[in-house]
Amino acid sequence: MRRYLAVAFVGMLGLAGVGQAVTEGSSGDIFVVKASKEQPTVAIGGSVVPYREVTLAAQLPGRVRYVAGVEGGAFKEGDLLIALDEDELLAKRTAAYAQYTAAEAQLRNAGVQYSRELWSPRTKSAPGGMGIPNLFDQMFTRPAEDFFGERDRDAERSADLYASSTQIEQARSAMLRAQSEIKAIDAKLRDTKSLAPFDGVIMQKMVEEGDTVQPGRPLLKYADVSWLQIEVNVPARLAQGLQPMQVLPAAATFDDHPEAVDVRVAQVYPMADVQRHTIKVKFDIPQGVSKPGMYAKVMIPDTSIAGGLARMPAIPSTAIRYRGSLPIVFVQNDQGQPELRMIREGKRLPGGMTTVLSGIAEGDRVYANPGPDILKQSSVTESEPAE
Predict the structure, then answer these.
(1) Which sign does the torsion angle of CA 25, 27, 28, 31 carry?
(2) 3-state DSSP call for residue 219?
(3) Which long-range contacts (CB under 8 A, 24 or more apart) does 338-344 make?
(4) In this structure, are strands 212-213 and 62-67 parallel, antiparallel, or unpaired?
(5) How far apart are CA 305 and CA 338, in angstroms?
(6) If we measure between CA atoms, which residue out of 17, 6, 7 comes closest to residue 369?
(7) What is the pLDDT of residues 354-369, one digit of tens each?
(8) Are 23 and 30 in contact (CB under 8 A)?
């Protein structure tokens, strides 16, 4: 049986292109670590974030009258999410509309007066008696007054027409002012309602019905979770090797989805963080893999090394055990006894191999599949092996 396992491991290493060797030991198969030609990668931790996320905040002071749902509730674009009390604004709108109606009546009246002055000027209808006295005033007295310069009835008529046109402009201005007030109130009425800007779900609700809010207070966080991304702060030397739309095969693992998945570079920010001196990078992930807020680990190729390749050790995945969440392996020391080593995992390779970023060096003798006797000698409780 042990000979069969040894042959199987040798075949597996041939598929991985590593060139390590496996020998038999008294308490488990020994794997002699040699370097592989796998491109070096660096594991960078990040968080799963929604493709789009907005924070809806209060635009007006008031009392929360309506909240659509709770965290996780799904809504369509344009659905009402939160509404504030609007009774005061409705009362102001009614008053502004009354002012508009009054200004409209003044405009109609001013137009009628202007037409009357245009077609029947008051300067031609001076008071007088009936019959001969009135006729005498119109035929002799008024022309005489104009002739001797005591009155200028044309100027009086022009002044009356100008006064009537001024009343029209004033009434029109009052209408425009009332319309502007109505539009401003309508805008505030729209601000009392927070509508869904796109299809999505409520991520976090920060108020309840009956709460009193002031302008600027966050009400809820709303996000589009149909597509998710991993947001990672990458050192500058690693970000140089990333380009938009670049696909990294089997490069990401998640707490709720341990199987590695392909990711695609969605965005590389053009500016570095001034405090941490890292560059933010977002990766697209397949649908249904994880949830917003989950921890994710991305294996980013290290192209800063000359030629893009390095001698990285690789060991069988079956050699890795876990102490809590920390990966460990058992190495045979110079006295032939198992010794526990904590390692930093790298990329999973075809054929059941895993690269190691730190903790193992070339030439180390690793127990490929430590059994109960190895665990007993090292006084460590075994956990489930890596798949």
Answers:
(1) negative
(2) strand
(3) 338/27, 338/28, 338/367, 338/370, 338/374, 338/377, 338/378, 339/378, 340/378, 340/380, 344/43
(4) antiparallel
(5) 34
(6) 6
(7) 878 778 888 888 988 8
(8) yes
pLDDT, one tens digit per residue, over 12-43 is 333 334 444 444 434 458 888 877 666 677 88
* pLDDT tier, 136 (very low <50, low <70, confident <90, very high otherwise): low
The phi, psi pair for 144, rounded to 5°, reads -70, -40
The span from the CA of 13 to the CA of 32, in Å, is: 11
Cα distance between residue 230 and residue 237, in whole Å: 19
Least confident of 87-101, 111-125, 138-152, 209-223: 138-152
Q: In the 8-state DSSP scheme, what is residue 59?
A: S
CA 202 to chain centre: 12
| 206 token code pair | 């920060």
The residues, any chain, with a CB within 8 Å of residue 236's CB and separated by 6 or more, are 272, 277, 278, 279
Instruction: Output the DSSP codes for 297-352.
Output: EEEEE-TTSGGG---EEEEEGGG-EEETTEEEEEEE-TTS-EEEEE-EEEEEETTT
Q: Give the tokens for residue 149.
A: 């310069």
CA neighbor of 56 nearest in space, from 208, 241, 193: 193
Interatomic CA distance for residues 312 and 307, integer angstroms: 14
